[in-house]
Structures are given as structure tokens and as C-alpha cells.
Amino acid sequence: MDARPAQHDAGTWKDALLAAVPAWITARAVVLAALAYAHYVADEVRPGRAAVARTVHEGLLAWDGSWYADIASRGYGAIAPESLRFFPGFPVLGRGLGVLLGDRVALVVIANVAALVAAVLLYRLVRWERGDAPLATRAAWFLSIAPPAFVFVMGYSDALAIVFAIAAFLAMRRGQWWWAAAAALAVGVTRPTGMLLAVPIAVEAVSSWRASSGGESRAGASPVVARITAVVAAPIGALVYLCWVWTQYDDVLLPYRVQTSSRLHGSFANPFTTVWHAVEGGFDGRVGTALHVPWLIVLVALVVVVFRRWPLAYGVFAAVVVASSVTSQNLDSLERYALFAFPLVLAVADLAAHRLVERIVYVLLPVVLFAYATLAWFGLYVP
Q: What is the DSSP string of 105-120?
């Protein structure tokens, strides 16, 4: 756990916007350039490949985006049960805004606005913890241009889930436990892995209670109730959706059964076996599969950095998210799942404090972002 004292100054909203907006614009320019390039290759250079052409022409609603669009416009009951693995928070918002914009456009708008809000909140969180504006700016940039962040431009729920996760951390680190509970509840309704947020919240609830030296105990039961509510909020959010599934399909765990089917991520597996299969995929020419292996090594190293340099709750959150990402039968979407653990971005921002390293990272990340977006639209990488 980092010994640096908390600064308790989140900066102004203007400061946060000035840091986040250029990063947000850059990310969109890079991803849209990748989409334009994919269109050019699919239409002009190698026409006739139906699967690639379909993914490219689905554009910002390719891959999981098409599922969210169908849920928003038609509802779960009108499409395949496989849709149940996508939690309702994001498509419900899309349906609501879709009254004005249309469901498909609304999903893309929500995802992109959420990406900007996430960068703004991350800037303020870092300023609150460290009082370090350059570090906060790097964090906002790196969250926006991280290689898997191309899904923040698409109709994916990830940006929205990260907004709620960062908001929960900012609230609980400030001692605003009811706000933390509200954010955690929203995470639980938005992502299947949202329940993992309960672990760092529990760690923070206990550690902050002990640090108060009993001062809050004299204030009555309210602080205890607020902490307990924040801890259970994310699981309750997920449970609300699962109970609805139960009433409709008589199987409360059906969304998770679908997700762990052999056609998707498979059931729980030994992570070492999963990693070895990914390595073998590299020798079999499966580029997207092999790319996950070096990233996993990087992610584990970043988890260590988070534990060493940031408060305990940050490290715990990073660890449980990364661990949950490698316990299925394949590593598909590893980088995107890991990005939910935003403290990993803070670790990169910390390590890039040296001016030369910072410049290298600022150049390298957009290049890799472009490459990953392009590979996804070509069907060579599963986002």
C-alpha cells in the first residue's frame, strides 16, 4: 500500500475537462480512422469476404454492439436466449434515449459520452488521491487511448460500467458511502462482472472504519448501514436482473450459464491451462488468441504496481478483475475485461512519470489502439 498522504483536492471540473477532452477526441479520431481503413480494405482490396464485410459494415455496432442494439430495440424475449448474458443497464438507457435518437444511435452516443465522463472522473480521483495534476492528466489520457478502449467508441457497455466503478471509488474514498452504494448498484445492473466491485468496497469499508479510531462509532448506526449497503449494492444490482430472468425463464443463473457455455467462454478452468492453450494458438496461426499472452504478463505486473503504489482497495480491485478474466477456457476479450479494473491505468500513469517514457507511451498507445480496432473489424481479434 502506498505510503503517500492523500491530498484531498480533486481539482476543478474545468481542469478535468481540459485534460480529458483532447484525449477523448484523439481516441475517436484513431478508432474512426481504423474503421475507415477497414472499410477500404474490405471493399476495395479484398472484397468478397462475407464475414469480414459484415463486421466492417456493422461499424460501431459490430460484435457485442449488435446484441445491445437488438436488446434495446426488440427486448430480450424477441431474440435468442444468448442475449441474456448482456446485462440490461446499458440497453435500457439506449432504449430511453432512443425515443429521441433511435436505439442504435443512442447506444453509440451513450458509450461515447460515458467515455468522456470516465476520463473526467478518473482525473478527479487521481487529483483527490495524490494532488498531482500531471499524473491525473496521464491517467485520463491512458484510459482513453488504451488499446482495448476502442470499444468506448462502439456501442459497448464498458465505458458506462467504468464510469460507475470510478464514481464508486471516488465516493467511498471521500467517505460518501451512500453515493458509493448508488454507483455500485448501477455497476451491478450494467455488467456481469460488476459484482466484483463489492470486494474493494468491503476492503475500503473495513480499513476506513478502523482508521477512524472509533470516531464514527459515536455517530450511531448510520455510518455502518451506509458501508454495508455500499458493499452489497453491486450484488443486489445483479440480483435484480437475475430475479427478472428467473421469472421469465425459470433459471436464475441462466445469464451466467450462457456466458460459460462451450461456444463462448466455457466453464471455470485452470488458468495455467487456459494460458497454455493461448500460447498454442500462436503456433496455430490464431493471431488474436496469441496476443493475449504478453498482455496477461503485463497485466499481472501492473497489478503488483497498483498494490505497491496505491491504497489497498485499488490493488484488490485490479487483482480480482484480472483473476476473473483468466479462469475461463479461453482468453477472448481479456484486455477489454481487464480495462474494467481502471487502477491498472493508474499504474501505467505512475510508471510513465519520466518524460521520455511518457512520450513513448503517448506515441505507442494510439498506434496499438489503431491496430487492435482494425484487427477486431477484420475478425482477427475478439473485442
A: HHHHHHHHHHHHHHHH
